[in-house]
Amino acid sequence: MADKKVKGAGDRFLPGSNIAKHREWRGLKDTWYDYVEWVKVLGIMGGFVAKSPVRIARGMLTYRWMGSYLGALNMIDRCVEGLRGPALRVARLYLNTIMKGSTTSIAEMMMGDRRFGDNAFGRTQVVLEQTMCPEILAGFQNLRPAQLEPFQGLLLCYMDQGANPYYIDAMESVGLPADSCRLSNNAAGVALLDEFPKIGACCISNNAPCDSSTMNSQLIERHLDVDTLPAAIPMRWEDPHTRKYARESLRRIIDFVERHTGETYDWDACRAVMEKHNDEVRNEQEKWGFMATPYTAAALAVPALFHTFYYAFSGGRNPEVMKTEHKVMRILEQAYADKTNCFPKTRYRALTWGGPPCYWLQFPNWLYNCWGILMIAGMDLFSGNVLIDTTDEETILDGIARNYETGVMRRHLTGGWRHLVEFWDEAEKFHCDMVILHDDITCKGALGLTGVILDQAKERTTKLMVVSNDMFDHRTISRADIRQQVNDLQSQTDALRGQLGSIVAQLEQSRTELAEAQNQATAAAKALEEKQAAFSARYDSCKQQLTAMQLLNEGGEISLLMQADDLYELLTFWQVLNDLTEHNKQLLDELDAEAQALDTQRQQAEAAATQAE
Prior knowledge:
- The chain is α/β, with parallel strands linked by helices.
- It has helices spanning 28-51, 53-62, 72-79, 85-112, 154-159, 164-172, 182-192, 213-224, 243-261, 267-291, 301-313, 319-337, 363-371, 393-405, 410-414, 417-420, 423-429, 444-447, 450-457, 479-562, 567-612, and strands at residues 125-128, 144-147, 202-205, 228-230, 348-353, 373-377, 434-440, 463-469.
- It contains 21 helices and 8 strands.
- The strands form 2 sheets. The protein has a 4-stranded parallel beta sheet with strand order 2-1-3-4, with helices on both faces.
- It is elongated and about 150 Å long.
- The two termini are 49 Å apart.
């Protein structure tokens, strides 16, 4: 008889598609909460359009990448798949704040885009390229940091896995090697096709550790038609000799922005924003304490995504970040106090490391829902968590520089090779028994240490799973390919676990049989000792009788016979002596037999004891 089909979460989707037939049922309370939050996201998107309807509509018609953001609702739903109770509420709070901040940034891009007409608003924007954090602009109260590449790169890939290959192919068609960093490759392709908004009074480009970063910075500068200054922050950030150079680099950035905007840097305003930045960092570190427990409500894709969001877009400037964090902390505290198991299907606690497949943001959710692998933290969670000393200008600049130096991608790829393998220590802190290494096939900085990591894994009890991806290009290694990698590894692991269980059962059975054999050997040894004691007693008695017979044999029997008064006594003495002789002969035969039997039993007992050992 065929096995009955087991129903799972995938049954709510139309066959062969990612279209859901209905919303995920989570119980009445959680389903209603999730639906209300979904409606709130619709309101956020409506507010986004209302900020500048005409310019946003023109942006939709002008920029290919903007159309992909219509899939934001699907992306959000996928990020909360399988979540219930406190975990669902934490994820929804974070996602709502991310949506508010992201839509506001896109709307401001369109509002300042010179394609649709020059205006004063656009001249208040300072473009920050790729991973450049906004803290350096904290002293310019009237200027807005405009993060350029995330909306055409990372966030775009989160929304639509088919969007980025268009720009990657455009860049490769003009000669860029296909094994270049996908992040920079994508940004260069967007610039080549002239799909960056023309915004900002000036641009601060970064010096990311990617091989194609310098190239894409040059293309972006040509496209934006504004002056650009490379940040030139030191790569080897642990070297104390670089601190002065880092501070001077930031001073050059401040002077550059002042010249191009006419604004003056306000150090008091900067200090106030840095204190708010420190509040964000302290809150993050406090949250890690809850994440390290079995009762955490913050896990999977969203908490790490929120950290990356406020690192890139807030830096102490967005008040919504701490409002959300206060709400989340109350949920975490209550879940911990109630000892609520928010992820009951957990089999492993995992930490992910390396460049993830951005075309599958919800990979951690799939891991948990299908295999019970709970992703507690990712590599980016440990980036940019620097408490900035606000004592004076020098300490502030040093802290801002260090925050950027230890930011996303830079901390683990430029600070020294040992930072790339510090995940072993982080896994212990968060009580993780598995590390998932994202093997980004175009990230040469990480690929160089893969062999070192594999060698280190042999000496540790923490499990290591290596999963390959191509960051922005799903065509090279698709979602299905990633699933197959995990399925194969976990199936092998489960099979080995089953074999190990069988071996353990056999060992337990052997141990039981060994214990029984040892008990039998002990009992046999005890019986042997008792028989030996009885034999010794009889042997001593026999020795006494033999001694008496020996005395008789040496002349004692003649004296005894001579004492007889008549023939009857003589015959009686003779009969007694004969009886004693027969008795002793029989006793000696028995003792010989018992001695031989005891010797055989002793040899058998020694052999059994040797076998038991």
